[in-house]
Amino acid sequence: MVQSSAARTKGSGNPNAASPLLEIAAITKKFGDFTALNNVSFTIDEGEFVCFLGPSGCGKTTLLRCIAGLEMQTSGRIIQRGRDISDLPPGKRDFGIVFQSYALFPNLTVEKNIAYGLTTRRMERERIRARVAELLDMVGLAGSEKKYPAALSGGQQQRVALARALATSPGLLLLDEPLSALDAKVRIHLRHRIKQLQRDLGVTTIMVTHDQEEALSLADRIVVMNHGLIEQIGTPVEIYRQPASPYIADFVGTMNFLTGTLADKDRLNVGSLTLEIDRKGQDIPAGRTVTACIRPEDIALHPCGSGGANTAAMIIEDIEFLGAYCRARLQAPEAVIGEILADFPVSTQESMALAPGSRIDAVFPKERLLVFEGTAEGISQHG
Fold it and tell me: What's the pLDDT tens digit per position in 62-76?
């Protein structure tokens, strides 16, 4: 488990903040003999957008529910703006929440769904009406006040749920996989709207997602979780470019893994191929088994026989057209490094006349090779 230096202390959303908005201190949650969260700690600053990212069962939703008071932690503390809220019921915590299932009242109009929290707080009727109109305009649903949820699309219902969560101006907005039930185009549209709203309002937001693209595009920081533990906390660029473990490298984006032996501090042997590496201060003894990782988009394709450092002769087994780019599956003739994925522009395929069976040179830039000690299972990066 590795966190960025900013994540080990305060959140990095506002470096001038005197204290974090939310502090999660050694939270553990057990269901019988099963440990869903294991001593989880981190902080979130005012105005940050933080995503909890991980596969199903990693503990991200349980953590969100503990923050909301919908689950009680077995041990540990939750502190919001210096106030210990660990044992408070949901109604006593300052948050708004949006669920994956929308959770709208089917028998209430859009207007009354959004106004629900304001009504229970006995706000004046005219102020409620003005607030609802403001929120409907904010989420792009002006004129839909009298409609019922059944008359709305999934994306529209989710926007109503978002407006309802924002109605009481909460200090913390919690989003529990709010876009996962929507189709791709609606999901992308709502993703942009949520980010714009969050920026405009400055509301501190936590979003649970298993979608890496959502996390990378929305978050100021990402908390990557696995088996109830935090694997890494960092900005989207840090998580993508400097993954702390092969698990993160594999889970976030697509990654090639090359297992070999460290020849010395600057070179790695993978079968008969020698690769120059830049380990940036990592201390791994020569002779150790290591795994080098490289993203498909970082591999350069050159005409066969071009030569040069970190170059391997490969054969194209297959090419997939993926719209904005192509992805090739490469194999070395002697199978010394296994199958490699390489991404490149469509124009490259056309200019080099690339096709299955083509022989090309694949170049592995040393500054893009991440090196981990051990094989690709259960290892940690040195550094």
Answer: 999 999 999 999 999
Contact between 276 and 309 under an 8 Å Cβ cutoff? The reply is: yes
Residues 303-331 pLDDT 10s: 988 888 999 999 999 999 999 999 999 99
Residues 294 and 256 sit within 8 Å (Cβ to Cβ): yes
Instruction: Check if the beta carbon of residue 161 is closer than 8 Å to that of residue 104.
Output: yes
Residue showing tokens 């993978």: 270
The neighbour count for residue 334, using CB atoms within 10 Å, is 11
Q: How confident is the model at residue 338 (pLDDT cuts 50, 70, 90)?
A: confident
Q: To 5 degrees, how large is the angle CA 179–CA 185–CA 188?
A: 55
- Asked if residue 295 lies in contact with residue 242, where contact means CB atoms within 8 angstroms, the answer is no
Answer whether 104's CB lies under 8 Å from 46's CB: no
Q: Are 306 and 359 in contact (CB under 8 A)?
A: no
pLDDT given for residue 335 in this prediction: 60
Burial-class residue 335 by CB neighbours within 10 Å (0-12, 13-18, 19+): exposed
Which residues face 359 on adjacent strands? 315
Question: Cα separation of 195 and 205, whole Å?
Answer: 10
